[in-house]
Task: structure prediction
Amino acid sequence: MDLSQTTFLIVDDHAFARRAIASVVTGLGASTPHEAADGSEGLEKIRKKADEGHPYDIVFLDWAMPEMNGFDVLLTCRKDERLKDMMIVMVSSESEDANILKAIEEGATAYIPKPFQPELLIHKINDIIGWKNGLPELDGDG
Result:
């Protein structure tokens, strides 16, 4: 899997979480992902990239953040035609089944609970790249 041309944004109010995800992504060969410390900053960066004609390929989005929570960012993105194909992965300690289902129903591509294992993140990235490229899902657990 060649991630050198895949663009990533990590939106999380905890620097440690952003660094952990960035480490996994760059370890897979991607260029350094962009980061945002809250939902408002994340949405601003998402819109800027879309305005430039190059939306992010994958956005990792924490649920509970100051300024604007990740769920509201998800809803806002899914209302924007330019962002309909952008893959959004909710990465959150918000683990109630109803909330996970709500995020998926509103257009989240995937959901990863915190704390996460790097192997799970790698697995999800592989699945997402496959989905984006129109490849069939390899297994039913992702």
